[in-house]
Amino acid sequence: MKKIFKILVSPLLFLNKLYKKTNHYNNQFVDVRKFTGNQAFTLDILHDLDIVNLGSNQPKFAFDYTRTGIKGMNWAVGPQTLEYDFMILKKFHSFLKESAFVVIPICPLKMFLYKFSNVSSVVKYYGCLDKDIIPDYDETQYKHDFKYPLIWHPKHMRFLLKDVQPDRRLELAYNPMSEDQIQSDADYWIEGCWNREFSIDICNMSPLSDLNKKLIQTNISILKDMIVFCLERSYRPVIVYLPVTESLGNKFSDEFVDKFIKAYVNKAISGLDIPVYDYMKDRRFQKNEYYINSFFMNRVGARFFTEEFMKDLKW
Prior knowledge:
This protein is α/β, with parallel strands linked by helices. The chain is 42% helix and 9% strand. The chain is globular.
């Protein structure tokens, strides 16, 4: 019986192994490869890092240390919550030099998001974090979506015949969108993404729901804990509000930025001497040519922004 079972299962395991080599499967791990395999942390040259940044998609595209002459690394993983920023920091902080800078970017609605709205966002962490520290670890999800994805999702068999393109957005050095498309993209982030996800109206803010208030308070506590974690280990935490295009920046009133973004950060860092850099509407970095849409920078923009940021840090 065991022999028959093995004969039946072996082909499936082989196909599963092949599927795990496809772009369709591996695109979800683009951001965590720097923590695994023959990547960053197997190379001695990337120990004793001088600076790292955490964060989600916006900082993933905004930081590029390659031309700064500084031993820095972009630890952003998209999408990512503050809770997982902290998990990444806890897992890999030993690769930092004493007194290294730890840049904590605060994206526009970062403090509203505590748990992932899409549980599939957790899968990427199964390859780089220990399961006992993953807040949302699920053994069933681990087996179905990470270890044996083809067996549990047989429709994915089609990607063995015709794969999707690899995710190469980080390589873009131009903005593929027209001005009208960039404006539409800015509208999407407000109306189709954040307003819908958090049940708010960014342009006409009303009092927040009890749920929003609870989740924001949780993130304030996480952010404070992250900063204390850094200070206790002689790292230098820095808060950064990253730039966006003029089209997207104009969607946020100064009142909204002060009341629904900065106020929460100020609570987290109250009583602590933490540098804060605000580039959200900095006109130096708002040109469409520095982005791939209205929100995420391209390589040209990222290198320019990172070089200027290093100057502001007095590196």
